[in-house]
Amino acid sequence: MMGKVHVYDHPLIQHKMTIMRKVETGTKQFRELVDEVSSLMAYEITRDLPLTDVEIETPVSVSTQKMIAGKKLGIVPILRAGLGMVDGFLKMMPNVKVGHIGLYRDPETLEPHEYYLKLPTDVTERDFIVVDPMLATGGSAADAIAALKKHGAKSIKLACLCAAPEGVERVQAEHPDVEIYLAALDEKLNDHGYIVPGLGDAGDRLFGTK
User: Fold this and answer.
1) pTM, to two decimals
2) 18, 124, 177, 204: which one is catalytic?
3) What is the pLDDT of residue 34?
4) Annotation says 177 is catalytic
């Protein structure tokens, strides 16, 4: 059983992604667009949160209404580009906990190494959403998900702005239990491992380090 892949077709997301892709879009606007698209994705990714009935008093009467049923969530950006997506999610879900994960690959063995990992203490009780703007080869995402599982995470989703089919396939192969949410599924990777047409290096464009 493969994890589902959800590709957003909402007009607002498609429109904002198009502007984000443009080579002339500067750091300030790029950062704002990542933030906005992340908020729109947060809306959809939480569609299956369980609800519970609560009794409240409106200015007119007492009434039974719905609230989210105490589901514990966590957002985990993959450093550094993933940081650009965090605020968009927090706008929709201000009470979620935020973990951080930083990985690098050993150039000799190609094995992943965590250089930074900080998660909420109640890892086993939370549903985690791993965020990273780009899903290119899928290496970082697969490694980050594996690291979360190693620390006890049971329920994980992956949210990316832009993905190549190769990255999706790798995450599905290594983590068939993880659902993937994308703002765009692009054509392919080029010889340098960049997504085509993609949007360039998201980290450089977010933080102005070109």
Assistant:
1) 0.91
2) 204
3) 96
4) no
